[in-house]
Design brief:
The complex is a heterodimer of chains A (269) and B (126). Chain A has 3 helices and 14 strands. Chain A is of the alpha+beta class and 269 residues long. Chain A has a 9-stranded mixed beta sheet, with helices on both faces. Chain A has a 5-stranded antiparallel beta sheet with strand order 3-2-11-13-12, with helices on one face. With 126 residues, chain B is of the alpha+beta class. Chain B has a domain of 78 residues. Chain B is built from 4 helices and 3 strands. In chain B, 14% of the residues are buried.
């Protein structure tokens, strides 16, 4: 008798139409959740993945640039996928310049008058960011905001034992303005390299550096953080980073100033 | 609704397992784009051969005469400094003390800095 009772309680339930309605609601709710939340999340993931891949690509390109400049490799070629935006080259004679740098000493003897680096710029339209390879550094900024950040530093250094400041400029040249989306190959060739070493008797300390950003593409906060970090040890004398104005820095106690300029020619994208 | 069998509930469970594992794989793949290149570069960046070369030449040049135009120790040291700056992008500093009556050894202080690696050595002719 107990067995019969058990069977009855087990098969008792709602009517078939209500059951159908329940299942149907669950299915519709599932589809709704996926379309409203899941799909936008997926797109966002894709955008951030594109951006991250491009950040990594820019660092790879910076490594190529390092090999060209510091290891005197004559030619480098890198294939990369450019997604979610475009990669462009602005050569160093392009105006407005991405930034200009001037270096002079106490006696107003100018060592570098107007240095323009040119840049290799990735502009992401879906994420709203710019990633730029300029003057040997990789910097990033948001389209609508003031801030910028340096993802990979250039190789400037100050040797405190010999009080030597080594400043490496990398100058990008190309035959024109080039742009690329999709899969491309960046071909870079080492051009002219210039080397200038000045010791104390002609060099009058302190030495000053002036950085003037492009007001539209302002990466001055990133560069300010780099210039004033303890390993380089420059001090900001005038100007406010992030406002597009000229910034003036004083170099640390320098008895030998070494300025190297490398020209890197971008053959194609 | 007669004869309910729940033997096939593993299908639903497998659905959950597969979808969650896909989710985790997606997270792992997303993170992996950043790592790799830079770590490999850091190993290649170490200037072992540059340091060895510079150190070798410095120690050899210590025992040159300092009088004539050729094979002049001061000139060779200046050449080393300039060449390392222009070719290897590194600051090299050399200072040495010749043997004295109390101390029969030659001592050379070698300083090498290329912005990434700093190398200091006190070499003694023992």
């Amino acid at each position: 008798m107990t067995g019969k009772n058990y069977r009855i309680s087990c098969t008792a339930g709602v009517s078939e139409s209500i059951g159908f309605l329940l299942i149907f609601t669950i299915v519709i709710a599932g589809i709704g959740l996926v379309t409203l939340y899941g799909y936008p999340m997926l797109l966002k993931q894709q955008t951030s993945a594109d951006e991250q891949i491009m950040q990594k690509n820019m660092i790879v390109l910076q490594n190529d640039l390092k090999s060209l400049a510091y290891k005197t490799v004559p030619y480098k070629e890198t294939s990369l996928k450019i997604g979610g935006g475009a990669l462009m080259v602005y050569n160093s004679s392009y105006t407005p310049a991405s930034s200009t740098i001037k270096i002079y000493d106490q006696n107003n003897i100018v060592y570098v008058n107007v240095f323009q680096s040119g840049d290799l710029l990735y502009s992401s339209d879906s994420a709203g960011t710019d990633i730029s390879l300029q003057n040997g550094a990789v910097v990033k900024r948001q389209h609508a905001e003031q801030g910028s950040v340096m993802l990979a530093e250039p190789r400037w250094f100050y040797d405190s034992e010999t009080k030597t400041m080594v400043i490496n400029f990398v100058n990008l040249t190309s035959t024109g303005i080039m742009a690329k989306t999709g899969v491309g190959t960046v071909q870079m060739v080492l051009g002219e390299a210039r080397f200038q070493k000045t010791d104390t008797p002609p060099l009058a300390t302190p030495v000053y550096l002036e950085y003037t950003p492009d007001p539209v593409q302002d990466y001055s906060i990133a560069w300010n953080n780099y210039f004033t970090n303890p390993s380089l040890g420059m001090t900001l004398l005038s100007g406010t980073p992030g406002t597009g104005t000229m910034l003036k820095y004083q170099l640390p106690d320098t008895t030998t100033l070494v300025i190297k300029q490398y020209e890197v020619n971008i053959k194609s994208l | 609704m007669a004869g309910l069998k729940d033997d096939a509930q593993w299908i639903v469970l497998m659905g959950f397992v597969v979808s969650f594992s896909l989710f985790f794989i997606a997270i792992v793949l997303n993170q992996s784009t950043v790592i790799g290149q830079t770590t490999a570069e850091a190993v290649l960046e170490f200037p072992k051969n540059d340091i060895r070369g510079v150190r070798d030449v410095i120690i050899q040049s210590e025992f040159l005469d300092d009088g004539g135009i050729f094979l002049n120790k001061t000139n060779v040291h200046n050449d080393i400094r300039i060449l390392s700056l222009s070719r290897q992008n590194s600051v090299v500093n050399i200072s040495s003390t010749p043997p004295t009556a109390g101390n029969p050894y030659t001592t050379i202080n070698i300083h090498y800095n290329n912005g990434v690696t700093v190398y200091n050595e006190i070499w003694r002719s023992e």
